């Protein structure tokens, strides 16, 4: 076996510098149910964007929401420190305005440093919970 | 810290112009259950394609359906206005023909401007609901 | 508005010719539960690969299975006609050998024409069903 | 029909050599529930990364975990033999430290040979289970 392969693959590089991800992300399937059945707060119905910033710079993030029959809302601004993750519950966004329940929407998430975005939803409207998660759509442009 | 990073990352550009997404999308896993248990209409079993058009042009979209043992159906035509999202329930497509229930199918979604497509299904056949969502397959060609 | 946009976006091209997709796909998360609770056959626990071939050539497909502690199994061979989809239940693959239940595995799906592959699982071990679906990993190589 | 298409598409090449995948993967949505309802061990709440290595070299893998309000943890080191899959339950990682429950986190998975990574979670906190799975975010860099 090749001795050079005994070295660790990318040790340390993932933690600082050498960013991973993209600057623009889209989540087309947005929906916040208006009621829950699960114990609060972990099992309340919610929708979240999970952001990961492994770069060594703080990420300034803007979220813009799109609807079917009105103008877009936002931007909602937040920061993800260097080497940190942040799981943003859309339910809790309220500046400049809260997100309407039981309404289809979509979101664009834009950052000034590359990040990774995963979309997750817990739906506890019925007695048992349903769960989804998918990597958001990443754009180069 | 670099002072230029104090500016907002992409403010305004996401809302008009500077489109994100692709023109051709595929959803290989299509299936509409024939019965439901949830309260109508939010928890009726359904399958949807969530379309997001952040460009400044209306998107003309065509959906073509593929089956295991018959010729393709469609195209089903619809529009997504500029700066809007549209969550299309496959159950409700009926021109040129409704989609059969309990039948495996797949779909191609083609647009004249770049859009983002996410696939979602709520299955409420049993007492509790199951939920899935995934970004569709994007093609450059 | 540009008059040329009045033409349909890609009419007809999706059905024959102008293929979409890739030739190699990977599903790393394979698992077939050994028991079910749902009514047969629609709600039996199963795992499937949904294949879409919109090209005008039949696709010859080979599936190879990988395990944690034994040699790979396969290839399992099947065909997807031109302009058709096929939802392959892994439970039903038995040539050259059936897939063990309650065993972690992964799969490579290789085709001689570009196809799209989506991975889905229905888990009905408990009283209610759980459902997942995700686009498989597409490779150029 | 082209006679050359009668040959099998990629026979054998998937099993040894001709690797598929990437060296860096991100899972932004990490969360291990602190309690379960399902029968042990199959239906205990868990979160897993499913790794597939179809190359002919053993993969040396490092997992680094990111949190919201503390320094990253890891690296957690493991190997995936050539031509094998490995489904890693995050619950079981304990060197250099166990992963806290009920805590949002994210993970980077880095390998010295190309692999494919899929993220899955079984949540059995309530009487019935919820299941998710998605391909992780793949990076070239």
Average predicted confidence as pLDDT of chain A: 77
| Global structural class of chain A | mainly beta
Q: Compute the separation of the termini of chain A in Å.
A: 42 Å
Work out the strand percent of chain A.
over 45%
Largest sheet of chain A: 8 strands, antiparallel
Number of distinct helices of chain A: 0
Q: Largest interface, per-chain counts?
A: A-B, 47 and 42 residues
Sequence stretches where pLDDT stays below 50 over 5 or more residues of chain A: 1-16, 125-129
Apparent shape of chain A: globular
Q: How much helicity do the residues of chain A have?
A: under 10%
Q: Count the beta strands of chain A.
A: 8
Q: Please state the CA-atom Rg of chain A, rounded to the nearest Å.
A: 18 Å
Order of helices and strands of chain A: EEEEEEEE
Instruction: Name the quaternary structure.
Output: homotetramer
Please provide a written account of the structure.
Four copies of one chain form a homotetramer. With 141 residues, the first copy, chain A, is mostly beta strands. In chain A, 0% of the residues lie in helices and 48% in strands. In chain A, strands 1, 2, 3, 4, 5, 6, 7 and 8 form an eight-stranded antiparallel beta sheet that branches. Mean pLDDT of chain A is 77; it is low at 1-16 and 125-129. Chains in contact: A-B, A-D, B-C, B-D, C-D. Chain A binds chain D through residues 1, 5, 8-11, 14-15, 18-21, 38, 42-43, 48, 50-52, 54, 83-87, 116-120, 122, 127-135, 138, and chain D through 23-24, 26-31, 33, 57-58, 60-62, 64, 66-69, 71-72, 75, 77, 102, 104-106, 108, 110-112, 119, 121, 123, 125-128, 130-132, 134-137, 139, 141.
């Amino acid at each position: 076996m090749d001795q050079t392969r005994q070295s660790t693959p990318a040790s340390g590089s993932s933690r600082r510098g050498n960013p991973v991800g993209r600057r623009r992300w889209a989540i087309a399937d947005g929906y916040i149910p208006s009621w829950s059945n699960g114990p609060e707060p972990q099992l309340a119905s919610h929708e979240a964007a999970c952001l990961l910033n492994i770069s060594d710079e703080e990420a300034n993030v803007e979220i813009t929401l799109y609807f079917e029959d009105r103008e877009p809302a936002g931007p909602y601004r937040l920061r993800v420190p260097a080497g940190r993750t942040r799981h943003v519950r859309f339910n809790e966004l309220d500046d400049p305005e809260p997100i309407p329940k039981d309404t289809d929407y979509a979101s664009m998430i834009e950052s000034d440093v590359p990040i990774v975005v995963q979309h997750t939803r817990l739906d506890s409207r019925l007695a048992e919970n349903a769960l989804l998660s998918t990597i958001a759509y990443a754009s180069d442009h």
